[in-house]
């Protein structure tokens, strides 16, 4: 599959047993999600674990948060490849109807069209009221986070084999399996809906928490050295 060529992203939501997961082209309009996103990047523990000691924690203004999400995720990811970051929230009462509620720990449902409208409410009022706890994302690393290729570098495979998984959860929700539940759902969604063939990821070497999570998701250490960062470990997970 190719890009969306700048077209608007269809509104949909993914439901897991505990979570509601919404593409950021929708979630960027929610002040509550933008506030959560800003708070994450002002949290020292979150920034050091996710990005390393070289990434300073600081408060992002609402305008900066909105512009950052729009430019770095929506324009560079969703509008190009039809995937990107998702806002991750706790499911509220309005999304617990029996026909919308997965019954198995590893299950999820994707709500589109009338099903989405029924759960989202008028102008997304129900979804906007969710308690946002983090994000989980998928992006074509070759056009986003990866440094330019240099002479002598191996040729890269197709973009559907270069999909980078990323995630971030508020520290007060660490240890509850939220990143794993959200990541598993969006990975499966991307395989079914976007034809993704392989996932990749990178972590700081001392971030054992993320390493353990990636292993639970089926990732193994790789020697690809895509990011060329000695302080990082690289991971991969081929679709079976």
TrEMBL record:
InterPro entries from the UniProt entry: Acyl_CoA_acyltransferase, GNAT_dom, N-acetyltransferase
Coiled coil regions, renumbered to chain: none
Domain of life of the source: Eukaryota
One GO molecular-function entry: acyltransferase activity, transferring groups other than amino-acyl groups
Domain N-acetyltransferase: from-to ranges: 69-240
Protein name in UniProt: N-acetyltransferase domain-containing protein
Native species: Penicillium hordei
């Amino acid at each position: 599959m190719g890009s969306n060529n700048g077209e608007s992203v269809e509104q949909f939501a993914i439901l897991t047993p505990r979570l509601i997961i919404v593409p950021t082209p929708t979630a960027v309009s929610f002040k509550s999600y933008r506030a959560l996103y800003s708070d994450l990047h002002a949290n020292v523990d979150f920034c050091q674990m996710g990005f390393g000691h070289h990434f300073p924690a600081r408060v992002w203004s609402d305008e900066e948060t909105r512009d950052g999400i729009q430019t770095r995720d929506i324009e560079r990811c969703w509008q190009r490849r039809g995937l990107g970051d998702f806002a991750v929230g706790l499911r509220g009462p309005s999304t617990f109807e029996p026909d919308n509620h997965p019954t198995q720990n590893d299950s999820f449902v994707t709500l589109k069209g009338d099903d989405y409208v029924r759960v989202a409410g008028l102008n997304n009022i129900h979804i906007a009221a969710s308690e946002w706890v983090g994000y989980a994302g998928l992006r074509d690393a070759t056009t986003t986070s990866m440094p330019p290729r240099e002479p002598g570098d191996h040729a890269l495979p197709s973009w559907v084999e270069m999909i980078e998984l990323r995630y971030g959860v508020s520290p007060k929700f660490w240890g509850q399996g939220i990143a794993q539940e959200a990541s598993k759902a969006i990975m499966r969604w991307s395989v079914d809906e976007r034809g993704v063939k392989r996932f990749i990821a990178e972590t700081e070497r001392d971030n054992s928490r993320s390493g353990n999570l990636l292993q639970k998701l089926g990732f193994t250490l790789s020697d690809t050295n895509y990011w060329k960062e000695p302080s990082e470990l690289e991971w991969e997970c081929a679709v079976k």
